[in-house]
Amino acid sequence: MKITFHNLLNLYDINPKDVKLVRHGNAQIDILESFRSNRKYFEAYQSFQGFNKFGKAKHIASFAPGRSTTAVFLGLYNIINHLHNDDLTNKHHSIIDKFGFPDEWKWHEVSSWYHLELNQTFEDLSERLIIDWGKSTVSWVQSKDKNILEIRGANSIGEFVSYDEIQINYNQLQNLSKDVITNGTWINALSAVNGIYLIKDTSIGKLYVGSAYGDNGIYGRWMNYAKNGHGGNVELKKLNPNNFEFSILEIAT
Fold first, then answer.
1. pLDDT category, 109, cuts 50, 70, 90?
2. How far is CA 137 from CA 6, 22, 71, 145, in A?
């Protein structure tokens, strides 16, 4: 039996007819990264939409693009109210300026601003629930039901894809150490190789290059950072590990 997103909504007494499913694209901003690292920016971004984009919906279910035709659930947002272009105030214009959104959003004839509030009911499924959205030509705002493909473990950071695409933050690194079963593809991949890696402090742009040539490969070395944030490195002790981003420059088997 297939479990669908509408099944889930019904389980929590939310009428699917009141919900628009929104799979944001990455053309203007990196959706998942913005959601993770700058939530206010993401939420301001999704509040500005085309004229009456969400119709009479009472909620939107926000998703980030996943691999292929999948979508990663971010959260369910209640629509408190919305204003059209003529009703937008200096407050809304200042939000556009604050986050560097296009000036045309201030006076575009078909623009709307939605006051959205996160619904806490589904917060524990954020970044864990994966649906099949359909082909890329399918509209990014829909009412159609979607099949749930997976609900990942609480500490999952997703499936490992390739060494070239690794770009994980400190919180994700800690999740790797907490749940070796859910993150098995990552553990296997990182343990299988040695190599050169990069740690970037995203707050100031400072870079640290390190190497791993011991037991359990890069995974073994990175677990030292997961424990305390610095792995014994004097320079890294001076920095806040919550700003760290880990990637791989070169692998050696």
1. low
2. 22, 14, 14, 17
Question: Could you tell me how far CA 54 lies from the centroid of its own chain?
Answer: 22
Whether pLDDT at 184 is above 70 = yes
> Are residues 197 and 247 in contact, defined by beta-carbon separation less than 8 angstroms?
yes
Looking up tokens 């343990």, which residue turns up?
191
Place of tokens 């001076």: 238
Q: DSSP label at 4? A: B
Alpha carbon separation from 142 to 17, 32, 60, 78, 155 (Å, rounded): 11, 19, 10, 16, 29
Query: Is pTM beyond 0.85 here?
Result: no
Q: How far is CA 245 from CA 12, 16, 127, 199, in A?
A: 36, 38, 18, 6
Retrieve residue 43's tokens: 């939420």
- Alpha helices by DSSP H, 58-212: 90-98, 170-178, 184-191
**Residue 63 CB contacts under 8 Å (≥ 6 apart), including other chains:** 21, 22, 23, 24, 71, 72, 73, 74, 131, 133
Q: How far apart are CA 195 and CA 163, in angstroms?
A: 11
Helix (H, G, I), strand (E, B), or coil: what is residue 147? Answer: strand
Report the amino acid identity of residue 132.
D
